[in-house]
Amino acid sequence: MSDELDEIQAIFFEECAEGLTTAEQGLSAMQGGDVSAEVIAGVFRAVHSIKGGAGAFGHADLTAFAHKFENVLDEVRGGKIPPSPGVVKVMLSAFDILTDHVESAKGLAPRPADEAALAALEQVLANKGADDGAPVASAPAPAAPVVAEAPAAPAAEEADEYGFLPMAVSLDDFDAPAEAPAAADAAWIVTFKPSRAALANAGEPLLIIRELETLGAEIVAVDTGTVPSLRDLDPEDAYFTWTLRVPGEVTEGDINDCFDFVAPDSVVEVRRDETPAPAAAPVAEAPAADTGADEFGFVPVSAPIEDFAAEMQRVVETIAAASPPVGSVETPAIAPKAGGDAAQQTIRVDLGKLDLLLNLVGELVIRNSILADRLSPADRQRVELPELARLTRQIQDNVMSLRAQPIKQAFSRVPRMLRDLSVETGKTINLETYGETTEVDKGVIEKIGDPLTHMIRNAADHGLESAEERIAAGKDPAGTIKLSAEQRGARIFVRVQDNGRGINRERVKAKAIEKGIISPDAVLSNEEIDQLICAPGFSTAETISNISGRGVGMDVVRSNVEALGGRVEIHSVPGEGTTFTMILPLTLAILDGMIVRLAGQRFVLPLAHVLETVQPEAGQVKRTSPDSEVIDMRGEYVPVKRATEIFGLNDDRAVEDSLVVIVESEAHGKVGLVVDTIDDRREVVIKSLDQNLHPIRGLGGATILGDGSIALILDIEALVASTNRYTPKGMAA
Amino acid sequence: MSKLILTVDDSASMRMLLKTSLTAQGFRIESANDGEHGLERMHEVKPDLLITDINMPKMDGFELIEAVRALNEFRGTPILVLSTEFSDEKKSRARSAGATGWITKPFEATKLGAAIRRVCP
Amino acid sequence: MTDTNDNAGTDRKIVTFSLAQQTFGIDMRALIEIREWDEPTPLPNVPGFIKGVTNLRGNVIPVVGLAERLGWEPSVIHARSCVLVVNIAGKQAGFLVDEVNDIVAIGETEIQPAPEVETIEPSVIAGLVRIATRQKDGTRDEKGTMVLLLDLDALSLTKHLDLAA
What domain of life is recorded for the organism (chain C) (predicted)? Predict the structure, then answer.
């Protein structure tokens, strides 16, 4: 049972993450001036749900904080507190603390110091947001370390057999009388006059009578005096008043419990019977049918009432035996809304199952292309095969889309981080976000979190100048970081752009020489100097700051991104800012490739890059320097690279006996790659090399061919970027 | 035959929690994830009892209760609200919409079971 | 005498194999399977001891020339050359060895700490243990052989390649 509970709790935490994202987006929208009811309601609901679940799982601190936050949101939602910038700011701070509380509830962080945030919320509540300009504590004051006070929730071992912690207040009701300690032994006299509308709410009064009877109650009297004349009688209304005698040893609390759900306009009276009455003498025979038609006073009842409706029916009959049945009340039937925009239903699936499915589909794709290869050309034209290929492709696309997630999941933690960074660095930082809805494979999203965090920290810490420095440079004192994502072909571009000082190349170069990363006489282009930032062991910070100096450098960013089959580009303009771009594959799974040979060995060249293939004629490839060549493509000179040389493979094949594949690279435009031959074209399943080894520069992974052998997948971008002339130490083996 | 309960809550963990704790007490549970879905499910499931949250997207608990009560078939079906809200104003709204009872979250499994048996013996 | 040494403490099984005329051992628990040598697909830009990658039931795993990795002369491939596929901290790798000899049980107490031997990285040797070797006629040579127990974690490729790459 506890496993099950853990599992449900894990889902609760996922919901918390979703809720926090929703709340943050809403609050950011509010900060940006969008204070529409819809946005506010969205934030309210998110915080409300977190509170609800937190309570259920016994996270008392989280519940208490969310509760206070929710109170403010409720007032804002109800228009009682205006969503002024000051109030929104308080709520954003509260949001940050709420996030910390969730982490704390997960056991990943200590209990946050929430006093300042609570006080700020309290102040907003007290002032109804009136003193907007007042210095409401905006950032959580660095309060003295709070000893996590014992939460109200009891210890785990007190959990009941269902694993639920007993909660303090669990049951509530509409209007229950307060419990009082039971008094002496005198019997209770309980008077109950249900609300007229009790039946409409399915609050069957008879059930309460029955429950009281299980406590030993006996009906003393039923007052039918309020039953109106037939003309005015509504058979769906309740008219009786019961008087019951309950044994004195029953507690008043137990009696009141029976009335938990009675409507507020019901009359419930519980009192001790002062006159020690004779034990309610059961009247032997007083059949209900005999409840005299002419007498509407107290009617003694002896036998338990069988059925309230039947009883009512009998009363009605006695009132007017010959009357036609009363027509039923007309009820407007509200038809359910048209099914057009039916609720978007989702199920949660173990990611492992999706991965397996993806792998299987990958194998299916490959078998499909192998099958096509083995068939005779005539058979290949048969309609079944293209149809099979089309279906396979559709399944593949669908499976891929199952793993696609909007990149905003990865972006969602950035605003919070920048708020913290803003406090730490004393810099005012604006964040602009674009392309959050860009969909990327879940595996990619999971793995770009850390690189993204470091890029943002780097931009805030090193990229942006202090306000004074910015003013001196004639810039807006507030710095801006633009975070964007866009899809281009099969690649995703994620950019972190700051409008800061740009890379100080002199200093970077000096540092690199000092650290022995490059030799003092190295001649480097601007781009090469910029790339040094990503070299292992490089850090430009003069003092190890609290922010960027946390043991990870941009080299980790680079290696993480390369492990994903991507790469990092740096573009910097002194005085104007720096842009870091992560270029990532859209998916990690399947690739449309060309099987080529390099020095006899098979490699996969991703087809997305291929423009055309030429068999060079004599003289078409010319040397422009001892280590550079170009190919004349109808008058356009395109640089030529020999992968065999880059990979150090022995190749003495003349270029005229080879093929030149013209590829388009993002960074270097058109480049010709020399290959021996082209064997085939097919889809391949990418197997990452770092699963058992390590990413290798120039390779995007490996694949298993139909015959079980392995072909390595070329990383075109890395290949065309590599030069034999200069390789900074640590950038390639 | 054990009682069949439809629970409507937009939180999956809350739905699972209800299902786990109430199934253990001998109830049969069906679930829906918002008011609209809940109303659809009422027709399919025809439960003995409806337990609904208040704050939900698409159609909130109040609207759901009103819609359910407007259907002749469910006029006698007990409806319990299970919400973290507890203001008198909300309770009275639920009451006038047609709710039978109100239980404030967090709930204690056994007490919830007792409350259910109270309105739906 | 069977496959076990008598005076052992907690028994543990090791696979022994020969490499450069020495006898080495690795813990049985790390062994996934033993495969015949099959020329792997060579990789560019990797240290020479990584012979390439091979297909192990749909997984791409690296194949390491263990002799070079330990600083000995590269193994010459022959009929009994084989690859020990092992699991090191969740990652799989194949080690090329000259010949697999035996599976023997040893007692923890019999393992002696490795002296500062003259391999490049003494740390890859977890310890030394003497075992009775099986003769061609099935009997045991009482004098026994010294087995160098390898510390697989120290041979982790990821660790090593992080430095090399």
Answer: Bacteria
Is pTM, for the whole model, over 0.80?
Answer: no
CB A479 within 8 A of CB A559: no
Size of interface A-C (CB pairs under 8 A): 82
CATH number of domain containing B78: 3.40.50.2300
Superfamily of domain A2-158: HPT domain (1.20.120.160)
**CA C46 – CA C37 distance, rounded (Å):** 20
Considering only CA atoms, which of A633, A578, A643, A573 is closest in space to residue A604?
Answer: A643
What would the pLDDT profile of A32-41 be if each residue is shown by its tens digit? Answer: 888 888 888 8
- Counting the structural domains of chain C, the total is 1
Identify the chains in contact with B, defined as 3+ C-beta pairs within 8 A.
Answer: A
**CATH T-level topology, domain A407-585:** Heat Shock Protein 90 (3.30.565)
CB pair distance less than 8 Å for A56 and B16: no
| Structure tokens, A443 | 């595996």
- For A8, the closest of B13, B37, B57 (CB atoms) is B13
For B37-53, b where at least 16 C-beta lie within 10 A, e where not — what string?
bbbbbbeebebbbbbbb
Q: Hey, what are A276's tokens?
A: 């020690």
The pair of structure tokens assigned to A587 is 């998916």
Nearest CA in chain B to A59: B106
**Would an 8 Å CB–CB cutoff place A399 in contact with chain C?**
no
Q: Do A694 and C165 touch (CB under 8 A)?
A: yes
Query: Out of B21, B70, B108, whose CB is closest to A334?
Result: B70
The residue segments making up the domain with residue C124 are: 11-164
Write the ipTM.
Answer: 0.80
- C-beta atoms of A696 and C42 within 8 A: no
- What is the signed CA dihedral for B52, B58, B63, B69, rounded to 10 degrees? -70
- Looking at every residue in chain A, the average pLDDT score rounds to 74
**Minimal CA separation from C90 to chain A, in Å:** 8
Residue A146: what pLDDT?
A: 40
DSSP for C97-113?
ESEEEEEEEEEGGGPBP
Chain C closest-CA separation from residue A429 CA (Å): 36
Higher pLDDT, A551 or A97: A97
Indicate yes or no: CB of C60 within 8 angstroms of CB of A692: yes
Instruction: Please report where in the chains the tokens 């609390």 appear, as a residue.
Output: A253
Give the CATH number, domain containing residue C51. Answer: 2.40.50.180
Confidence of residue A302 (pLDDT cuts 50, 70, 90): very low
**Reported confidence tier of residue C137, pLDDT bands at 50, 70, 90:** low
Give the burial class of A729: count Cβ atoms within 10 A of its Cβ; 0-12 exposed, 13-18 middle, 19 or more buried: middle
Q: Which residue of B has its CA nearest to A159?
A: B108
pLDDT at residue C162 greater than cutoff 80? no
Contact flag B84-A11 (C-beta cutoff 8 Å): no
- Domain A590-721, CATH among 3.40.50.720, 2.60.40.10, 2.40.50.180, 3.40.605.10: 2.40.50.180
Whole-number average pLDDT of chain C: 78
- Contact A/B (≥3 CB pairs under 8 Å): yes
Those chains having 3 or more beta-carbon pairs within 8 angstroms of chain A are B, C
Q: How confident is the model at residue A539 (pLDDT cuts 50, 70, 90)?
A: low
Please give the residue range of the domain that contains residue B28.
4-119
Identify the residue among B6, B7, B17, B82 best suited for mutation to test binding to A, counting A beta carbons within 10 A and taking the highest. Answer: B17
List the one residue out of B38, B46, B39, B54 whose CA is nearest residue B77: B46
For chain A, the structural domain boundaries read: 2-158, 188-319, 355-405, 407-585, 590-721
β-sheet bridge partners, residue C83: C35, C96
**Number of structural domains in chain B:** 1
Establish if C3 belongs to a structural domain.
no
* Residue contact C165–A692, C-beta within 8 A: no
Q: Which range is least confidently modeled, A348-357, A613-622, C82-91?
A: A348-357
- A106-138 pLDDT, tens per residue? 888 888 888 888 888 888 888 876 654 444 444
Q: Is it the case that chain A and chain C have 3 or more CB pairs lying under 8 Å apart?
A: yes
- pLDDT tens-digit profile of A662-684? 988 767 789 999 999 888 877 77
**Interface contact A692, partner C, CB < 8 A:** yes
